[in-house]
């Protein structure tokens, strides 16, 4: 996609708007599968939480991807998008036994990450195969909020609890068919990933009837020009070799599984917003846009970096701006950022807006969530309509309130007495 394509989408569908480039999603999927081509059985389960629009899910399903889900609603979306139940894995955290049972009844692969639910589920449903999420106690990830494999994490069953875990499996006679880990997001050092994989291999030796080992994901993508990223090709060579050697030792060709979200869709996404006001203060030039952290929360939540380009004036002289939103509290996308000269009415483009952007949007300040557009085969396809006021109040229930001593009653009494 080029700037003109994005400007045309802005004019056609209005602002703010999310845009996803299907070709980038396809190329990232092919890059990942190519890096692990030496593995006999590879399964890529796209992490639906990154971007769950049903048209994007259908695209990935057609590519041959499976689906990683964390809620029964994501499971239902996956089924609606055409994924077979056996191609969906359910990896929740802290959900009820009832939700897990409901998902299991759909024929979806269950992944359990705590001993309490494991024992309850195994006692009631020993015949249903279960994957176990272990915590390798490896700190990895670009931010403490997205590092999930360390010792203080709420995710996974600690490797130090293995004796207790094995006792539950033995007592319930349940079938463990998979082992899973996820250390965090934005992993750059592949040696950390490889170290965690060794822990996973050692854990897998305790289970004799595995079908797959799931290494999670968390691959880092570049956020700006010249930025570093996870070397997928090098990781593919090293991990494939280790995995194939383990399969020989195990005596069975297992499936190597991954659950990429950001890696597949982050760079495919663009978020377009119009400049409402350029405001000069004593120390700062603010570019205020027609959106806020209600639509793109990552910079405020994680301190995430999104490149911002003025696609209305890409060749303009660079100046320094703080780009801010319209939410009535601190709402900053970028501080003192170098951007081509901005004037009111210009359209700014946020890059890397494909993952954890629209899916984390809200109606805060009673604002409507934006439209979504898929760029496919050189054409723009609307895949989610912009919300309206009717959408905002659809599930609200108005109650007829008659408060005693209300202003109207007091006025009525005053008129009667007068």
UniProtKB/TrEMBL annotation:
Q: Name the pathway.
A: Amino-acid biosynthesis; L-lysine biosynthesis via DAP pathway; L-lysine from DL-2,6-diaminopimelate: step 1/1
Q: Name one GO molecular function term.
A: pyridoxal phosphate binding
Q: Which residues carry this modification: N6-(pyridoxal phosphate)lysine?
A: 49
Named cofactor requirement(s):
pyridoxal 5'-phosphate
Residue ranges occupied by any Orn/DAP/Arg decarboxylase 2 C-terminal domain in the UniProt entry = 18-354
Superkingdom field: Bacteria
| Residues that hold substrate according to the record | 298, 302, 329, 356
Q: Which SUPFAM superfamilies match?
A: Alanine racemase C-terminal domain-like, PLP-binding barrel
Which ranges does the record mark as transmembrane? none
Per its record, the protein catalyses: meso-2,6-diaminopimelate + H(+) = L-lysine + CO2
Question: Which Pfam families does the entry link to?
Answer: Orn_Arg_deC_N, Orn_DAP_Arg_deC
- Gene Ontology biological process terms in this record: lysine biosynthetic process via diaminopimelate
Keywords annotated in UniProt: Amino-acid biosynthesis, Decarboxylase, Lyase, Lysine biosynthesis, Pyridoxal phosphate
Quote the EC number.
4.1.1.20
Q: Which part of the chain is the Orn/DAP/Arg decarboxylase 2 N-terminal domain?
A: 24-266
According to its UniProt record, which residues of this chain constitute the active site? 328
**InterPro entries this protein is in?**
Ala_racemase/Decarboxylase_C, DAP_deCOOHase_LysA, De-COase2_C, De-COase2_N, De-COase2_pyr-phos_BS, Orn/DAP/Arg_de-COase, PLP-binding_barrel
Main role? Answer: Specifically catalyzes the decarboxylation of meso-diaminopimelate (meso-DAP) to L-lysine.
Q: Which family does the similarity line name?
A: Belongs to the Orn/Lys/Arg decarboxylase class-II family. LysA subfamily.
Name it: Diaminopimelate decarboxylase
Q: Which organism is it from?
A: Sinomicrobium oceani
State the taxonomy lineage.
Bacteria, Pseudomonadati, Bacteroidota, Flavobacteriia, Flavobacteriales
